[in-house]
Design a protein that fits this description.
20 strands, TerL_ATPase, Nucleotidyltransferase, domain 5, 8-stranded mixed β-sheet, 20 helices, alpha/beta, Terminase_largesu-like
């Protein structure tokens, strides 16, 4: 960097030691990038990265030890977090002059924790000076620096020992994904007391859970940045857009992304922004991952004006004999139950046709109208909703109904929630239907959920303006995982979404299998990442 200015968080009694800072910077810049177009090139620190390294390793107390023992770095995705975290881990393990240093790489799960480890291991392999002094134990996710018998070890919130740590350094990757504060407390509360200058390096993108340890640390960082709190051992860095900023403004993108145009092209951010403008469900994901804003985890998903625009008339008679796929969402026996058929298009001009069916116990109909303030009685009179005798859903009645549908339509498969009613599944199989279990996690639900939104926005789906299905769609709230996968959030969706879930499952099978079990749209263009 052209001109370094010591951090404003340096206390009066501390000093900036240029030699120590230069050493840390030079150590890191002897390493190489490991991924993509940068692979094999020297790790030349960007200005914002060098500022952090000089502040952390060059700001020392009168006794010569580091002033800061905790660094909280919050920054959007694709800014080079993994590379920086790996470099700091290697510096603490191999270049900090600490005998038998214990450095740990922590994350929510072993796979996440392994990301930084793999980068660090590749950096070692590409650096001759380190490679001959370091032993990489890949199966144990462990790197040993032989001259000082120091090590870097991966830990996850899934599996760790609660005692016996003598920590010199901890690198917490994506702190916002920690399921609770247990691992964080074990690693940061007293575990480094026997060391002269332990460093807890916390690096993350903004999260969604405001009750998490990450948000707690985020708030502390903000308080210190704004001068509301003072902690000379805590070093805060937050790159992100303010809540009042216009998230569509390229100037805001630059403010939040210090590596914009270097590690990530502005065209990529622009494309993601355009997608978010078209799809309200993507706005929060864009703001969280691209602009580093803390946003609510669950958001109402479907823009109902777009859904209503797909209310094309559905002629059941014209669908007879056509290939279709079913989605079955079995409620508890006292609740609404949904079965949805999705007919794949027969040509390029055709649409996916959705044919939904709903049942509710007859004896609870009036009670539910009064309690839920939902017009079940009106829907039942209009033929949109069916009732079964008694105060519980009669699965036998539904099985017979589906069997009759199978005589009208060519039902290739029926997808069902694998935790649904086992007996009903067996009965349907006995009738000759192919019944396939369908997972309710991000892996299975995300692709068809995103595809449903895409088809809706493109008006390539026809649902006949079915009011019960519309109600279900309007009730959906979406949960997003750190990788950008989405699924309907049943906890946040307090009203019924069973028909929407059944539609998503049936749509998945229709997309994958089509009219003749040919290759699916997923195969042609990969999974849709909105």
């Amino acid at each position: 960097m052209k001109k370094y200015k010591p951090t404003k968080f340096k206390v009066k009694s501390s000093k900036y030691d240029k030699d120590l800072a230069d050493y840390a910077v030079n150590f890191i810049e002897c390493l190489s990038h490991t991924k993509g177009t940068w692979a094999g090139k020297p790790f030349e620190l960007l200005d914002w990265q060098e500022q952090i390294i000089r502040d952390l390793f060059g700001t020392v107390k009168p006794n010569g030890y580091r002033q800061f023992n905790t660094a909280y770095i919050e920054i959007p995705k694709k800014m080079g977090k993994s590379e920086l975290a790996a470099a700091v881990a290697l510096l603490l393990t191999c270049g900090d002059g600490e005998e038998r240093a214990e450095v740990y790489g922590c994350a929510a799960d072993r796979q996440q924790a392994s990301i930084v480890f793999e980068v660090a291991a590749d950096m070692v392999r590409m650096c001759p000076a380190l490679n001959k002094r370091v032993k990489i134990l890949a199966s144990q996710k462990r790197i040993v620096f032989k001259p000082t018998n120091s090590f870097y070890q991966v830990l996850s919130a899934e599996a760790y020992s609660k005692h016996g740590f003598n920590i010199h350094g901890v690198v917490f990757d994506e702190l916002h994904t920690q399921p609770n504060r247990k691992l964080f407390d074990v690693m940061t509360k007293g575990s480094g007391d026997a060391r002269t200058q332990p460093l807890y390096f916390l690096i993350t993108t903004a999260g969604t859970d405001t009750n998490s340890i990450c948000y707690e640390t985020h708030q502390k960082a903000l308080d210190i940045i704004d001068g509301r709190k003072h902690d000379p051992t805590f070093y805060p860095v937050i790159y992100g857009a303010d809540e009042s900023d216009d998230w569509t403004d390229p100037k805001v993108w630059k403010k939040a992304n210090p590596s914009l145009g270097i590690t990530v092209g502005i065209d990529k951010v622009k494309a993601a922004c355009e997608s978010a403008k078209q799809n309200p469900a993507e706005e929060n994901s864009f703001r969280q991952l691209r602009l580093n804003q803390w946003v609510k985890q669950a958001i109402r998903w479907m823009p109902m004006d777009k859904w209503d625009a797909c209310g094309f008339k559905v002629e059941e008679k014209s669908l007879e004999g056509r290939v279709c796929y079913g989605g079955l969402d079995l409620s508890s026996t006292t609740d609404i139950t949904s079965f949805v058929l999705v007919f794949p298009p027969e040509d390029e001009d055709d649409k996916f046709v959705v044919l939904p069916y709903f049942w509710i116990p007859e004896d609870t109909l009036d009670l539910r109208v009064k309690r839920d303030h939902v017009p079940y009685d009106l829907w039942e009179k209009q033929g949109w909703l069916k009732t079964t005798e008694g105060n519980v859903v009669h699965y036998g009645f539904i099985e017979t109904f589906i069997e009759e549908l199978g005589q009208k339509y060519n039902i290739r498969e029926i997808a069902f929630d694998r935790w649904g009613a086992v007996q009903m599944v067996q009965n349907l199989e006995g009738m000759g239907f192919t019944v396939v279990p369908f997972g309710q996690g991000f892996k299975d639900m995300s692709p068809p959920t995103k595809e449903l939104m895409k088809l809706t926005l493109e008006q390539k789906i026809a649902h006949g303006a079915h009011p019960v299905l519309r109600w279900n769609m309007d009730n959906i709230f979406i949960r997003t995982d750190p990788a950008g996968n989405i699924k309907a959030d049943k906890e946040k969706s307090t009203e019924k979404i069973d028909g929407a879930i059944a539609t998503i499952m049936a749509l998945d099978r229709a997309i994958r299998c089509g009219n003749n079990n040919a290759a699916s749209v997923y195969d042609d263009r990969g999974l849709l990442i909105l």
